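Work Package 3 (structural annotation) set out to generate three-dimensional models for the target panel prioritized at the project kickoff. During this period the team completed the workflow that converts sequence records into discrete structure tokens, so that structures can be stored uniformly alongside our sequence database. As a representative example, we reproduce one entry of 118 residues exactly as it appears in the project archive.
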Amino acid sequence: MEEHINEKEALERELERLRKEKEQLEEEVRRLSAERNLLEKDLRRKRPAFELLARLRKLMLALEREEAEVAHLAACSDLSRHYLEAQRWLALLERYRRHIETALRGPVVDLEGGHPVV
């Protein structure tokens, strides 16, 4: 009889230990889930930035490759007959400058919806 009681108590202690362990594991799952959600949110926020950087780097490489030749040709050329086209290029470059400056300031967020304003 005594042996049966000791076995029952041992099983109850083991059950209590397992319950506590389960609670700890559930808490860890909740913590990891919250951390994962934050990381996913951060990734969604950064993904457009990485794409923007990739596109700008591609443009930058092409522009840098041609810079010396363009500088030489600009020094010995007259684009006055192509004024409108030259103005379009300058306007495009100005728009790129503004887009990059906007990105440097960070996204504008709708305070009610929490979404970036495009």
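The CA atoms of residues 66 and 72 lie 10 Å apart.
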